[in-house]
Specification:
This protein is an alpha+beta fold and about 200 residues long. The protein contains three helices and ten strands. The strands form two sheets. It has a six-stranded antiparallel beta sheet with strand order 3-1-2-8-9-10.
Length: about 200
């Protein structure tokens, strides 16, 4: 190998090591996973949707110390926009209560209410050896029963639920779950299912 070729190879290897090194100045794409939670009793709706933000700047409003989220900013995200990560949900689960509506003139039956609880799972001391397989998700419980989970791990965005909507109906609840379609290359195509649970 010529000296020029060796220098080029060395440059490539150095760049790769900087990108892959966890504490290097440069880093590979790093995506943070979040859910946006909506609790709207006025229209009888609970909704959860996941999304990613790639490469949130270090030493910015969110990662003020360059590593951990700033607590004040986390609270603002929750109160102002309904945005949560799995760590925040693990410490303080989110709850949504939609009250029932009594039977009324023009409505033959009571419209059932429901209760949703969202908890977070984040294994900061994971023994899996890879972030790809560590627990990082939000668990959704409907009336005390586990309804499903929404993965927040950047490598788990093509599995399980991307969104869950629960809406109040005349005689029960409609539950809509959407997940990334198996044929979707970039994760933008969703496949959705609707189930109606009649209140008996």
């Amino acid at each position: 190998m010529s000296r020029t070729g060796a220098l080029r190879l060395g440059s490539v290897l150095l760049t790769a090591s900087l990108l892959l090194a966890p504490n290097g100045d440069a880093r590979a794409d790093d995506a943070a996973g979040f859910v946006q939670l909506i609790c709207a009793p006025e229209v009888g709706l609970f909704s959860v949707r996941r999304f990613q933000i790639p490469n949130i700047p270090d030493l910015g409003p969110y990662l003020a110390d360059g590593w951990k989220p700033d607590e004040t900013v986390v609270r603002t995200l929750q109160q102002k926009y309904g945005i949560y990560d799995s760590r925040a949900l693990k410490q303080n689960p989110f709850e949504c209560r939609i009250p029932s509506l009594p039977a009324a003139s023009g409505r033959r039956a009571e419209v059932p209410g429901f209760h949703v609880k969202v908890t977070g799972q984040y294994d900061a001391n994971s023994s899996t050896g890879s972030y790809r397989t560590m627990a990082d998700h939000a668990d959704i419980f409907l009336n005390g029963q586990h309804l499903g989970l929404v993965p927040l791990n950047p490598y788990g965005f093509t599995v399980e639920n991307s969104s869950i909507d629960i809406s109040q109906q005349e005689r029960g609840l409609n539950i809509r779950k959407c997940a990334v379609s198996v044929e979707s290359v970039d994760g933008s195509q969703l496949s959705c299912t609707d189930k109606f649970f009649e209140d008996k």
